[in-house]
Specification:
DNA-binding; 20 helices; disordered C terminus; two-stranded antiparallel ribbon; mainly alpha; CheY-like_superfamily; five-stranded parallel β-sheet; 5% strand; Sig_transdc_resp-reg_receiver
DNA sequence: CGGCCAATAT
DNA sequence: CATATTGGCC
């Protein structure tokens, strides 16, 4: 074995220093590839003839970790011979000609991957995976230590999880940019996340198993791309999975600082692999991914504004590990974000019908949550699309690409609104969940008694601002209760108005 | 608890 | 430098 899992785990700055055998009769090509690899800190030995390469691999002292071999019409047989002889060396075949049968043959004969030329940096960057793959596979078989094989197993399972999830994402329209965060490695069978099990936190392995079986809906745990092999511990993984989507631990080389000395976080990161997470409870940072946010929104929708309080939302979301505080903050952030954009710079200004409370910032002392839905439930205020002429729609800005990821998948619309006005807005609504009876009644009561719980919602002036803001800045989250019109509806509306072409410019609404 | 917001992290 | 989150405080 060229390299064991243990070697890898102890490797400093992996994959730096990985030895690559490069065989390409085209010297120019070889040099280009070589220099690219070297930029990535691989150690490259280039060979321009097969014989040289063959003798090099027979010299065990060379200790290559991975090989990149060019194949072309004419030298195939020799290359296949190379594959034959280099059984222990993960070999990547590459060629100008992407003939499927040649590719297939290469793979069949043991090549770990076939890369089309030219070999971009992206393609080359992750060739280390083959080394890791091999090492871990072998490790699982050979290691005497039970733990080791378990680690390898877990690792493999994790790989499995990610694959599944990633595939899932690829088939999912709602896929968030998150999934692109990591540039997909060229190798399909092995994902980049080499994580390592932190023994000390290893509570049990069965939890891990459960995770594995978890539905593919989960967002995959963010992968740490660090200089060294960094690893997750089981708890973390379990935790992350149990959150179902999105709560990631900080990059795994961070210790969990005591809240008290939070400033220490960076220092802590100096102990990448061997952090002895004492309490085992590291602070995880909640990643409000689209999935998580969707849950959040659904919960808020279910509860209705009246009861959308953190604790209840938390309950409904049923996401392990999420704290009330997390939810509260999220709730508020959304709220504040809106307010900030809706009432920019009007610091001193109060709502028209200012009420008796003293704190200027409590515009909605009783209903501080998502303070804007009510107005939009009122037909008088904002009955149909298009909006009143005073706010010419800037349809060109409503395209899906300009929405934050969760917008496309999350309906900020309250149920009754969906029922009654979705059509008007041209937005067929897709219920992301079956139905919520309690909701209906909640909303119905809202509908029949518009002022039910919003006795003092802001005056029209403010509402106008809200609407205008929402229209002008489609990239901002919409207040609960507002939903963007579909591109189709906008375009058809435009054509009704005699505008048949949409300017390509995507801003331009001020 | 529920909220707000300054301090931090990203 | 702008946002996103957390930590604390009221």
């Amino acid at each position: 074995m060229v390299c064991t899992a243990n070697d890898l785990l102890g490797w400093k700055d992996f994959p730096k220093g990985l030895r690559v055998l490069l065989l390409d009769e085209d010297i120019d090509s070889a040099n280009v590839i070589k220099s690219k690899l070297e930029e990535m800190d691989y150690v490259v030995s280039a060979f321009y003839s097969e014989n040289d390469a063959l003798s090099a691999i027979s010299d065990k002292s060379k200790g290559f970790h991975v090989a990149i071999v060019e194949v072309r019409a004419g030298n195939e047989d020799g290359r296949f011979k190379f594959l034959e002889r280099a059984k222990d060396l993960p070999t990547i075949m590459t060629s100008d000609v992407n003939c499927i049968s040649t590719m297939m043959k290469c793979i069949a004969l043991g090549a770990v991957e076939f890369l089309e030329k030219p070999l971009s940096e992206d393609k080359l960057r992750n060739i280390w995976q083959h080394v890791a793959h091999k090492a871990f596979n072998a490790g699982a078989k050979d290691e005497n230590e039970l733990l080791k094989s378990e680690e390898a197993l877990i690792r493999l399972e994790k790989v499995g999880i990610k694959q599944e999830i990633i595939q899932n994402k690829e088939h999912n329209e709602e896929v968030s940019v998150e999934s692109d965060k990591y540039h997909a490695p060229s190798t399909p069978q092995l994902k980049q996340g080499m994580r390592h099990v932190d023994n000390e936190d290893q509570t049990n392995l069965s939890t891990e198993k459960e995770c594995v079986e978890h539905d593919g809906e989960s967002k995959f745990v963010e992968i740490t791309c660090d200089d060294h092999l960094v690893v997750d511990n089981v708890m973390e993984t379990n935790f992350s999975k149990s959150l179902e989507e999105g709560i990631n631990k900080p990059s795994s080389n961070e210790c969990c600082p005591d809240p008290k000395d939070g400033k220490k976080q960076n220092e802590a990161s100096e102990h990448p692999i061997s952090r002895s997470s004492k309490s085992g409870r590291r602070k995880v940072k909640v990643d409000w991914s689209s999935e998580l946010h969707k849950k959040f929104v659904q919960a808020v929708e279910q509860l209705g504004v009246d009861q959308a309080i953190p604790s209840r939302i938390l309950e409904l979301m049923n996401v392990e590990g999420l704290t009330r505080h997390n939810v509260a903050s999220h709730l508020q952030q959304k709220y504040r974000l809106q307010r900030r954009h809706i009432l920019p710079k009007e610091s001193g200004r109060k709502w028209p019908q200012t009420r008796h409370h003293s704190t200027p910032r409590n515009y909605y002392p009783q209903k501080p949550i998502m303070a804007y839905p009510p107005p939009y439930h009122s037909n008088q205020v904002y009955p149909t699309w298009p909006p009143p002429h005073s706010y010419p729609p800037p349809p060109q800005t409503w395209g899906p690409p300009y929405y934050p990821t969760w917008h496309s998948s999350v309906s900020w619309l309250w149920n009754p609104y969906q029922e009654t006005q979705a059509e008007t807005w041209g937005c067929p609504t897709i219920p992301s969940h079956p139905s919520f009876p309690q909701n209906v009644s909640q909303f119905q009561s809202n509908r029949t008694m518009p002022n039910n719980s919003f006795d003092h919602y802001p005056g029209d002036e403010v509402i106008d601002k809200v609407v205008k803001e929402a229209i002008n800045k489609p990239w901002l989250p919409l207040p609960l209760g507002l939903k963007p019109p579909s591109t189709e509806s906008v375009i058809s509306e435009l054509s009704k108005q005699g505008i048949s072409t949409v300017p390509p410019k995507i801003n331009g609404c001020h």
